[in-house]
Amino acid sequence: MGVSGAGKTTIGKALAKALSLPFFDADDYHPEQNITKMRQGHPLTDADRQPWLLALNALLHSQKQQGAVLACSALKGSYRSTLQQGLEAQQQFIFLKGALALIQQRLQARKNHFMPADLLKSQFATLDPPKNAIEIDIAEPPELLVSNLLKQIK
Predict the structure, then answer these.
(1) DSSP secondary structure string, 69-129?
(2) Residues 50-82, buried b or exposed e (16+ Cβ, 10 A)?
(3) Tens digit of each residue's pLDDT (9 = 90 or more) over 111-127
(4) Is the domain 8-152 a CATH 3.40.50.300 member?
(5) Where does the pLDDT of residue 107 fall: very low under 50, low under 70, confident under 90, or very high at 90 and above?
(6) To the nearest 5 percent, what fractions of the chain are helix, strand and coil?
(7) N or C: which end of the chain has fewer CB within 10 A?
(8) pTM of the predicted model as reported, rounded to 2 decimal places
(9) What are the domain boundaries of the chain?
């Protein structure tokens, strides 16, 4: 979890591969109206996110037996609670934490993504850092981040 541009997809895919688990990107599950809204430079509201979060929770329930890695912003504690409903003992959040300037630079270099860089400040304003998560600094190379995560995962 983390703001857009923190590396959720990159780290999530590598972690899933290392753990031999399926990988899911929450961005792939946004309804079209959410994507349109973000493309137009408007931040999503909690009401916009709720059906999306419930769909992600259902996806996680469908993977309950084998496990999975989900890359999702999950910026607020209430969002994480929705994702965890019925799976509290089985989920581990990993918080990809980074400086605004670094993430802004990454977003500006990214091509073909619906999330514009100018919404990053609204994501930082919304971010409610988790209390019970593995926290990693995204300034390190992805290979090192995944290696360190593998040592910390329950």
Answers:
(1) EEE----SHHHHHHHHTTTGGG--EEEEE--HHHHHHHHHH--S-SS-GGGHHHHHHH---
(2) eebbeebbebbeebeeeebbbbbbbbbeebbeb
(3) 665 555 566 788 888 89
(4) yes
(5) confident
(6) 55, 10, 35
(7) C
(8) 0.88
(9) 8-152
